[in-house]
């Protein structure tokens, strides 16, 4: 069974979606790490009986992931940029969920509410969520899964966030399941789902 680590910074609703799907995942959520002490997701992990830690330093993070024999890392609302060493230690073994349709509204500085505010300001009528492998380019790794949703009727960034989160909670557990079943492969920089 694969050993998963989920990295978070916030309320952890994306983490919860994976926890709720546990029975279908061919792997164990062995560890939750937050870079913020106040992240609500830590309580969700605790409640689910999952080891949870607060780690800010990236060297310490890498050492912990190695000690815990982690095979696969999910960034679920993790608002820090991973360093080169960590990314190189887990090639195509780290996925991130981004709350827009990459390559729109992504890259450095585009995280959390900034994304939905930019979406609202630009007046796009469709947004969505993207799950991709993590490479050294921010939000630039191979795209695994995307789902779009109409936001034409929405007038605030908060409402857009809410609608996009509904999609996130649907696709993230599914992609984790596919990964753990070995159904996601990267060929020439793009992803194929088997
Ligand atoms: C999600 O929108 C995720 O895409 C983004 O941060 C949010 C995390 O929400 N990067 P939560 O902490 O899982 O509730």
Task: Tell me what the structure shows.
The protein has 194 residues and is an alpha/beta fold. The chain has one domain (2-97, 129-144, 168-193): Rossmann fold. Helix content is 33%, strand content 26%. It has six helices and nine strands; from the N terminus they run βαβαβαβαβαββαββ. A hairpin with a 2-residue loop joins β8 and β9. α1 (13-19) runs parallel beside α6 (157-180). The protein is globular. It starts with a strand and ends with a strand. The mean pLDDT is 97. Residues 8, 10-15, 41, 76-77, 97-99, 111-112, 165, 168 line the site of 5-O-phosphono-beta-D-ribofuranosylamine (GRF).
List key phrases describing it:
194 residues, alpha/beta, Rossmann fold, 7-stranded mixed β-sheet, 33% helix, 26% strand, globular, binds 5-O-phosphono-beta-D-ribofuranosylamine
Question: Tell me, what's the shape?
Answer: globular
- Strand tally is 9
Main sheet: strand order:
3-2-1-4-5-6-7
Mean pLDDT: 97
Structural class: alpha/beta
CATH superfamily: Formyl transferase, N-terminal domain
What is the succession of H and E elements? EHEHEHEHEHEEHEE
Unreliable parts:
none
> What's the level 1 CATH class?
Alpha Beta
Share of residues in helices: 25-40%
Task: Give the cofactors and ligands.
Answer: 5-O-phosphono-beta-D-ribofuranosylamine
Q: Given the structure, what is the number of helices? A: 6
- Our Rg estimate from Cα atoms comes to 16 Å
**Total domains, how many?**
1
What's the architecture in CATH terms?
3-Layer(aba) Sandwich
- Alpha-carbon distance between the termini? 19 Å
How much of the sequence lies in strands comes to 25-35%
**Biggest sheet record:** 7 strands, mixed
Named CATH topology? Rossmann fold
């Amino acid at each position: 069974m694969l050993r998963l680590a989920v990295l978070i910074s916030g309320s952890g609703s994306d983490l919860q979606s994976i926890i709720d799907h546990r029975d279908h995942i061919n792997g164990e959520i062995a560890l939750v790490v937050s870079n913020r002490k106040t992240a609500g997701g830590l309580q969700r992990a605790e409640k689910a009986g999952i080891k949870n830690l607060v780690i800010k330093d990236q060297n310490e993070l890498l050492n912990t992931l190695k000690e815990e024999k982690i095979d696969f890392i999910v960034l679920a609302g993790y608002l820090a940029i991973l360093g080169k060493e960590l990314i190189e230690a887990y090639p195509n073994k780290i996925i991130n969920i981004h709350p827009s349709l990459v390559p729109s509204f992504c890259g450095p500085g585009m995280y959390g509410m900034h994304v939905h505010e930019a979406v609202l300001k630009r007046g796009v009528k469709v947004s969505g969520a993207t799950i991709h492998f993590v490479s050294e380019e921010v939000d630039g790794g191979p795209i695994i899964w995307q789902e779009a949703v109409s936001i034409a009727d929405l007038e605030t960034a908060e409402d857009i966030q809410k609608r996009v989160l509904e999609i996130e909670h649907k696709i993230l557990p599914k992609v984790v399941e596919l990964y753990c079943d070995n159904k996601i492969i990267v060929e020439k920089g793009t992803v194929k789902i088997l």
